[in-house]
Amino acid sequence: MSGNHSLRPRVACExxxxxxxxxxxxxxxxxxxxxxxxxLPAGTVTPGLQHANITSRExxxxxxxxxxxxxAGRSRDIxxxxxxxxxxxxxxxxxxxxxxxxxxxxxxxxxxxxxLPFDVDTSSVSFDRQPADExxxxxxxxxxxxxxxxxxxxxxxxxxxxxAVLPSMIAALGVVxxxxxxxVIKVEPGTTTFAIVDQNQLLLYRALENGGTAxxxxxxxxxxxxxxxxxEDRHGISVDRVLVTGVQSAQALQAEFxxxxxxxxxxxxxxxxxxxxxGNVARAALAGVAGALVS
Length: 295
Hints:
Elements: E1 11-15, E2 19-24, E3 34-39, H1 57-72, E4 77-82, E5 88-94, H2 101-112, E6 123-131, E7 136-144, H3 145-157, E8 161-167, H4 168-172, E9 182-188, E10 191-198, E11 201-208, H5 217-235, E12 241-245, H6 250-258, E13 265-267, H7 271-274, H8 287-294
Parallel strand pairs: 1-4, 4-8, 9-12, 12-13
Antiparallel strand pairs: 1-2, 2-3, 5-7, 6-7, 9-10, 10-11
């Protein structure tokens, strides 16, 4: 969660446990005009907060080079998207918050120390302020510096500069119309992440350690319903749209939801947004890079 979007590079690259995806979007484009993806050998990247994430640096650097070279052209500046499991996102409410960035950072870090199982003092912390009914709501992203450095240094070894770094779900929200109550579900290996946005604000963020093949329709329906009930009780707002990415079949998942609710699911990345440049890369793999580039 760093960097002014208007100044971000037009090349984005996402590293996940399964693959590296690199994409380019022309200025003011609403679609990707070039995409490359490289599958990673199993175990190359093991996302997490409290252990080394990259177990095969050579394999990752090779995949980064092979993905970025065809789409980046002469550009060396990229937006890097890292796994959700490597970052903790928290929504914090404050009565007031100092205007001066350095003072606000100290206040936010003090609050985070009570909420995190790792050392905030040795972590990278970035945050955005949001207006709230009373006081200020802060969306904070926290990544241990040792973990962040693993990803950034691999990108530098591949010959590129990670000018901005975004967690995958935060990046993916860039393609969402956040003006209406919308839930986004993002499934990746080891992690399922839920976010709810409305009035261009992030109002709920929830990450569960059960992603990938461990997620089935029945469990996802239960998790979605739990999140919706909590959200509606707290905010008094009903979600009228659910976007999903990373599941094997949105149609099969819709069948599970139809059995118990009136929720209609839509794929987060449409074919029009993916564009012809996506080639054979699965749309579910494009959420992070698309959100980082075309919003």
